[in-house]
Amino acid sequence: MTVFVLNGPNLNRLGTREPDIYGSRTYQDLVELCEREAGRLGLSIRVEQSNAESQLIDWLHEAADAGADVVLNAAGYTHTSVAIGDACASLPGRLIEVHISNVHRREAFRHHSYLSAHADGIIIGCGIDGYRLALEHLALAG
Ligand code: DQA
User: Fold this and answer.
1) How many separate domains does the chain show?
2) E strand or H helix at 71, and its extent?
3) For the whole prediction, is pTM greater than 0.90?
């Protein structure tokens, strides 16, 4: 089954966006890293990015209907979106929440996530490598 790898607002700007925090690797690098890792693990994946909350929710509904596992970096919506949290709550598959930066070393408003209570696992502060770790976990934990 296809794993959904969903990315929220501003992640399309990786590479130029605050590189001191998010690193110099681009969104395209992130997509390629996920595809390479998925190939190695024998996983089918679908990688998406949107700046729109409604689009992220629609993809979560698609994943729910498919019974698919999800790797989700909801970016800024992590800290604001009850609606994305609600969509995560109804996922029958596994949910791994990923953050590139260590949000707990940053501003207080980044310490709360509306998603974490619904996540099976959370990977924070490992850079874009966190996506690789999330996919590896999903593949190895079956
Ligand atoms: C982020 C952390 C969020 O606080 C921030 O709004 C982002 C990216 C991360 O991957 O580190 O856009 O989710």
Assistant:
1) 1
2) strand 70-73
3) yes
